[in-house]
Amino acid sequence: MKLAILTCERLPELLPSDKPLISMLAKKGIQATPAIWNDKTIDWKGFDALLFRNTWDYYLLETEFNHWLSQIQSSGIKTLNPIETIQKNKHKFYLSELEAIGIKIIPTRFINQTNKLNLSVILPSNWEKAVVKPAFSAGSYLTEVFDRENVNEISKKYAPIAQTKELLLQEFIPEVETHGETSFIFFDKKFSHAVNKKPVKGDFRVQVQYGGEYTLVNPEKNILNTVEGIISTYHEPLVYARVDGIIIDGAFYLMEVELIEPDLYFSIKPSALTTFASAIAKNLFNT
Known about the structure:
Shape: globular
CATH architecture of the largest domain: 2-Layer Sandwich
Helix content: 25-40%
Distance between the termini: 13 Å
């Protein structure tokens, strides 16, 4: 069984915490090889399956990535997660579908491409602070937090972006700064571990490259039940999933369901790699 572990030019040999996966999979009869997703010299049909892992530049190469995904989908090559899942998850308007079936999400307005962006009209009257970002993005790319009094300035700044990209406008939740956001990691739809991520003082970005502090946590049962309910809405097999959200007054509010290339925090919980390897083998050999 030949498996391509998809990555990007910046990480040709994978993220260091993901590298042990190769030897673990070898013991299970899987020959895993890192492969840069947009390397045009690769014959993808030479692999039995593709595993999305470190494709961390996809949002910067939107047109190219979308075209490549369509080619992979047309080829019929098996992917983990399923290519249909990847196609939907790459665009954050999927959140509106989850909200429609009763899942609590961070208060959000979904903005289609427009030549006449006017955030002052879209911004709800009870929001004093908001976040704006593209629907096709990752890692705080083109993301800004702004106060209500700056809405016209931000609207002008994002007007050219809105002409080619859909946007999300979200209420800024102060708990991000005080309590941080929490990521719940699942392998084969079974809960593995949870990580709380807090930004440095004065910032809203929780990513480690911006100084975010990560801590392994044990979630309360009612919160975990809610997150497991979100995962259960996906009927397709998921070799991995990361659910990000904020806990407000004892309730979980969804920010994102990451099914393409999330950090799964193996550096914080190395033993989870073993669980991940077993989930990969199960999905490859049992289907």
